[in-house]
Design a protein that fits this description.
alpha/beta; nine-stranded parallel β-sheet; 7 helices
């Protein structure tokens, strides 16, 4: 019987599958990227607390992890990577789930909300490598601001500006 274990999702699962070892009351710390499925499965291994150091999943699944009783599964200090498109509301909520960095792989929202994400970007919230989709009408200057804040593709649903300026961004 182990009182605690700190290891990867795979190794913790292998220990659980070993009939000679019991994790029934162990405190478990998962050191690599865990999904909702991983968190749920590992929570089922023990009556002790599961601490996730890294979470990588969709907006919906990360929200579901946070809804698990924090005495059972904690992501309060987890570095989080959101794998699908997040809005300002999603990013703000997920940033509240942890005191560590939240990395957004993709953002999709109105221009003003995307600017709010950019302005709140710091050591806790990062969209510098996110695919960006702006859902409302923008102009050349606004598109350039979005381009300047990510290394990935910026998709625009609706743009309006002078023809010469649109040619600069190949529209």
């Amino acid at each position: 019987t182990l009182t605690s274990i700190t290891d990867t999702v795979l190794n913790v699962t292998e220990v659980e599958n070993n009939t000679n070892i019991s994790l029934d009351n162990s405190a478990i710390t998962v050191t690599d990227a865990a999904t909702l499925n991983d968190a749920t499965a590992i929570n089922g291994f023990t009556e002790g607390q599961v601490t996730l150091n890294v979470v990588q999943d969709t907006v919906s699944n990360i929200t579901s992890i946070d809804l698990i009783d924090s005495n059972e599964v904690s992501m309060a200090a987890a570095a989080v990577t959101v794998t699908d498109a997040a809005s300002l509301a999603n990013a703000t909520a997920i940033n509240g789930f942890t005191n560590a960095q939240v990395t957004l792989n993709s953002v999709q929202d109105s221009y003003s909300n995307l600017v709010s994400i950019i302005e709140s970007s710091n050591t806790e919230l990062d969209m510098s490598n996110a695919h960006v989709r702006v859902t409302d009408k923008v102009d050349f200057v606004k598109v350039n601001q979005l381009i300047a804040n990510t290394s990935k593709l910026v998709t625009v649903d609706n743009i309006s500006d002078e023809k010469a300026l649109l040619a600069v961004i190949n529209i």
